[in-house]
Structure formats: C-alpha cells, structure tokens
Write a structure and sequence with these properties.
alpha/beta; eight-stranded parallel beta barrel; two-stranded antiparallel ribbon
C-alpha cells in the first residue's frame, strides 16, 4: 500500500454558530465570516503540515480545488502545489484534482501542471475532476455540459502533453488554432492521472477504459459504498477484458490515531463532528444540481450520500466506515480488513479535518506514519508479488 497525506485546508476558525442563520458553508455563506489575519495564519500552518508529511515518509501530499466555501480554501490547487514544489523533496505532489470543465482555457491547466512536473523532476500526479455540484453554482458553468466539457478538456490536455505542436484543436466547447505547449511535462508521456469521484457510473466506465486505466479514488463515502463503487470499477474492467489492479483503486477517508481508543475518540470528537455536520453539509440540490449526473448515477450517488442532511455523531461515522478512529493497533486492524475486502493500494487519510488544531494534526500524522504505515505497506506489495508470479 501507498499513503498520501491529503489536506482540504478548511477555514478552521469558522464561527460554527453560522448554522443559526445559514444552512451551508458552501457558496451562500457570506465572506464576512472570513478574517484575513486568520486566513494568513491558516494557509501557512497548512503548508507547514504538508511539508512535515514529506519528512514523515508519506508517498505523496495532496491538495484539491473548491470554490467559495469554508470547507476548503483552495480555489487554485496549483498555487499550493507550486509552494510545495520547492519545499518538499521526496513525496509526490497530488493535485486531486483540478476541475477541468470549469476552465475556459484548459491549455493553461496543461501548462501549469507541466510546470510543476518539470520543477519537481517528475513528482506530480494530476487529478482530473468535474467538480462537485456546488462548484457549478459558484462558477456559473452549466452542469448539463459537465461531462462533455470534462471529456473534451481531457482530450485537449492529453494531446497538448503528448503531441508535437503546433496543431489545431476544434471541439464543441474548446477551439484553439495553435496548441504548442511550452514547457512539456517532465514525465513521459505525461504525469499519472487519477480520477476522484463520488461514484458516477459514467466516470467509472470512462476511467477504467483500456485506453486509460486511470486510478479511481472514492472519496468520503460510507465503507459499504466504497466497496460497491470500487467493485463497479473492477467489474467494468472485466467487461473490457482485463483485470484491474489494486494500483488502479484508492480511498480517501478521515483518520485519527491516538495513544488509546479512548484518547483518540475524545480528541477527535468535536473536530470530526464539526467537519461532517458543519463544513461538509450542503443542500441536496447544491450537491447534485439538475443535469450534473445521469438518472442512473443520480440514484446511486444519492443512495450513497443519503443522510447528508442529518447530523452524525462520531459513533455513527465510525460505524458506517466514514471515519476511522482509535489506537494505532485499532486503525491498523480496520484498514487492513478494508484493504483485504476491497483491494485498494492507495490510501489518502485526511489527517486534518474541520477544526482539528495544529498540535493534534501533527500528533495524528506522526502516529499514523510511525505506527500504522509500516505495518500496512506490505499488504499491497504482497498482492502485487502474488499477481506477478
């Protein structure tokens, strides 16, 4: 298994009483709740945490893209990746991901990712996403065209990375008379591409196609839904005529490690409950606006996200496999069992969530790196070795 320290960079100093007036921290929450001095401190604190993860031996450090929300202060993940590119030495830098349908000029994204890949000497992993429904409210892009714009932008970026220029690109949504990328990516033919998703059937079918075989990540869902969606990927690969490997599957989930189960639960409780019941909560119509998903995918994702409108305790989150908390031994056992059942080789633990302060984030990351990762690494390696024999 491989491990990636993933960060959302939430506005952790948010006045949580905002829910007395507003039903979500996404798009509609007035930016008067934001304090520039606190924002300045948080950005630098979070960069310190990501850089610290590099020294702990994580395989990668991850950032992502969200707009107009206290849930995550990364409207431009490339800014964070740029800051990390010169301050880290070993870990892969995961941009998970860039919302390519929201861009009016995908070539700029291709250029930015190529720059980071070149500066780091090939440490970039490029994540492409459509962006969750709230992003379409924030940017004014029509969600009906989400799939079309995603696929067309993807094709343009891949061609820009791999084909000698200049050449012409004429699509339905994007048109360029000159595609001639400078610089080209350091990794050849291009950086690895990962596809985080909420479980869209169309996304799974597309990512697993033999011409792509992109790593698929299931994000922040109940364990049963994670198992179901990753199995969908494996089943779809089988329909395509090949067997998907564990390296094509990943899981992102909040994790907290303490000295004992009791200590872990006590320390994590207010922060994971704030994460789930404050930062992550949004109206259903904002999560899945009309046209964003096909009817079949809408039903699947809606079922997986059922209960988003209700508050959940730590115990409820733990029971549903939406949060893993406990001593190092407990966390190891839970993750080993999940890996055995599901077969993913990439784990993205969210080790800072909601209002979790810096000292507990550092403690959590250190315990996870020193007492969990070494025990679980051989799991994926053993399966890979067996498959090679």
């Amino acid at each position: 298994m491989k491990f990636y320290f993933f960060h959302l960079m939430p506005y952790a100093d948010l006045d949580l009483s905002y829910t007395e007036k507003y039903d979500t921290s996404w798009v509609k929450l007035p930016n008067t709740y934001y304090d520039r001095e606190k924002g300045h401190a948080l950005y630098n604190r979070y960069l310190d945490e990501l850089e610290f993860a590099d020294t702990l031996g994580f395989d990668g450090i991850g950032c992502n893209e969200h707009h107009q929300t206290a849930y995550g202060m990364m409207p431009s993940p490339i800014v964070i990746a740029s800051a990390l590119s010169r301050r880290t030495k070993n870990a892969k830098i995961l941009v998970l991901g860039s919302a390519i349908p929201l861009r009016e000029n995908p070539l700029w994204l291709a250029e930015e990712h190529a720059m980071i890949d070149t500066i780091t000497g090939g440490r970039l992993i490029s994540g492409f996403v459509r962006g969750i429904g709230a992003e379409y409210h924030a940017t004014g892009v029509n969600p009906i065209w989400s799939h079309e714009r995603f696929h067309e932008a993807h094709d343009l970026i891949i061609r820009a990375w791999t084909e000698p220029g200049p050449f012409r690109f004429a699509g339905k949504h994007y048109h360029f008379d000159y595609v001639n990328l400078w610089p080209r990516p350091y990794q050849q033919p291009h950086p690895p591409i990962w596809i985080p998703s909420q479980g869209s059937q169309e996304t799974i079918e597309w990512a697993s196609h033999p011409s792509r075989k992109y790593t698929y990540l299931q994000t922040f869902s109940p364990a049963a839904a994670v198992a179901r969606f990753l199995k969908m990927y494996r089943d779809q690969a089988e329909k395509y005529g090949y067997e998907a490997s564990g390296d094509q599957l990943g899981w992102a989930i909040p994790v907290y490690v303490g000295e004992t189960d009791e200590i872990a639960r006590k320390e994590a409780r207010p922060h994971i409950e704030a994460f789930r019941n404050k930062f992550a909560k949004m109206p259903f119509e904002m999560l899945l606006p009309p046209g964003y998903l096909s009817m079949s995918s809408m039903k699947r994702v809606a079922a997986a996200k059922a209960g988003m409108s209700i508050d959940m305790t730590l115990e409820m989150l733990d029971e549903q496999g939406m949060f893993i908390v406990g001593s190092a031994a407990t966390v190891r056992e839970r993750l080993a069992e999940a890996q055995k059942q599901i077969g993913f080789n990439h784990l993205l633990p969210l080790l800072q969530f909601g209002t979790l302060p810096h000292d507990l984030t550092i403690k959590n990351a250190t315990l996870f790196a020193e007492q969990v990762m070494p025990h679980l690494r051989p799991l994926g390696e053993a399966k890979a070795a067996a498959a090679a024999e």
